[in-house]
Amino acid sequence: MYEIPDWHELIWDKGDFSRIPEKTLQAFREQAAYRRPVQLGMSFYVCGADTPGAFLPCRIPLDRRMTCPMHGVVEDGLLPSPRGGQKAPAPYEAVLQELGSAPDAAAFDQAAAEQLWLHRVRQDINDGQYLERLTRRHLDYESMREREKMYEIVQGAGGSGDGGIDVVAETHTGRTLAFQCKHYAEPVTAATMKVFHYDTTLGWENTAVWRKHHQQRARHRVFITTSEFTAPAREVAEASGIHLLEGTRLTVWFGYGLPLHQVLRIPADRW
User: Fold this and answer.
1) pTM, entire model
2) Which of 4, 38, 58, 155 qualifies as a cystine partner to 47, CB 3.0-4.6 A?
3) How does pLDDT run along the chain (271 residues), one tens digit per residue?
């Protein structure tokens, strides 16, 4: 493996690229242009693909299947020579096409998108409330981008006593949103989905948000995970009207900063 100097700086930074040594940035760019994935340290790989608007090649750590949520499966080895034929779109391109949105070269927040997946290599952030904090932060970011108070966070501290609902927000139109955030390594099961369905329907009056604020029941319910959903869990969600956010779609929301209702394909007048 070609040794990238101070490679840990590539993973530990918080979006301030000026703090990363220039020799490290240059070595990473050279390796990403020559070989994908890029090996850092001795035990993990990052994607290394280009993303429109990103300052560096993709630094998302790959999972056990050597897959990046933005760019798909990354084969280990030297980059192949260009060949004829039409190239299949990367997962993020497919999602953007589905949403009817084009990537804005000036709008991709690389650090925000990569924060979702740092738990794969950083045990210090592998805690149960990490995804809740990121979700709440990006709801606030959407308000900042729109220059209007889009969401009022009613509950978002997480922990015990939240009644099984991690984040509750109220839209500027007065509608309640309920979020369940699972920072799992294993897929979310149907049993877990059923619990969230109960907590946001018949069990709503037992939740902390009802006891403290008498908040009306959720108009939209969103289940977010850094893992994936089993087929039975998807069936429960579809039958119950629960929106699912994972993988590529979740990374696109964080990175490109699209409105959440657009990412979930909900018309603005129903949001």
Assistant:
1) 0.88
2) 58
3) 567 888 888 887 767 788 899 999 999 999 999 988 999 877 789 999 999 989 899 999 998 889 999 999 987 776 665 555 556 789 999 999 999 988 776 688 888 899 889 888 776 666 668 889 899 989 988 887 766 778 888 887 555 555 678 999 999 888 999 999 998 778 999 999 999 999 999 988 888 788 777 788 999 999 999 999 999 999 999 999 999 999 999 999 999 988 999 999 999 889 8
Element at 177 (helix H, strand E): strand 176-182
Q: Which fold has domain 127-270?
A: Trna Endonuclease; Chain: A, domain 1 (3.40.1350)
Nearest to 46 by CA among 27, 30, 67: 67
CA distance 86 to 95: 18
Q: What is the CB-side half-sphere exposure of residue 43 using CA atoms within 13 A?
A: 3
Task: State the first-to-last Cα distance of the chain, in angstroms, to the nearest integer.
Answer: 50
Token pair for residue 256? 């490109």
What residue segments make up the domains of the chain, in order of their start?
Answer: 8-122, 127-270
